């Protein structure tokens, strides 16, 4: 899933080398923590959060076979 998030985000940003995805997993959920260059944060979030919502939708449907809740957080 980490590679999927990186594959989606890297073409959107000006600094793809700064894209990092960390995984925080416990018994009931998986949180993918996405960090990008501060100059690219707006591109990843999009107008009214549309790009961020699309990324979350793709990740949720790709992880449908997991019994854990899946979240994508965009870090400051």
Automatic annotation (TrEMBL):
Pfam families: KH_KhpA-B. GO terms for biological process: cell wall organization; peptidoglycan biosynthetic process; regulation of cell shape. The keyword Transmembrane does not apply. It is found in: Cytoplasm. GO terms for cellular component: cytoplasm. Keywords: Cell shape, Cell wall biogenesis/degradation, Chaperone, Cytoplasm, RNA-binding. InterPro entries: KH_dom-like_a/b (IPR015946), KH_sf_prok-type (IPR009019), KhpA (IPR020627). One of its GO terms (molecular function) is RNA binding. HAMAP family: KhpA. Forms a complex with KhpB. A probable RNA chaperone. Forms a complex with KhpB which binds to cellular RNA and controls its expression. Plays a role in peptidoglycan (PG) homeostasis and cell length regulation. Belongs to the KhpA RNA-binding protein family. This is RNA-binding protein KhpA. It comes from Ureibacillus terrenus. The gene is khpA.
């Amino acid at each position: 899933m980490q590679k999927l998030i990186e594959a989606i985000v890297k073409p959107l940003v000006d600094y793809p080398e700064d894209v990092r995805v960390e995984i925080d997993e416990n018994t009931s959920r998986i949180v993918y923590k996405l960090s990008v260059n501060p100059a690219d944060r707006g591109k990843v979030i999009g107008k009214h959060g549309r790009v961020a919502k699309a990324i979350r939708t793709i990740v949720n449907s790709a992880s449908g076979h997991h019994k854990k809740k899946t979240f994508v957080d965009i870090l400051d």
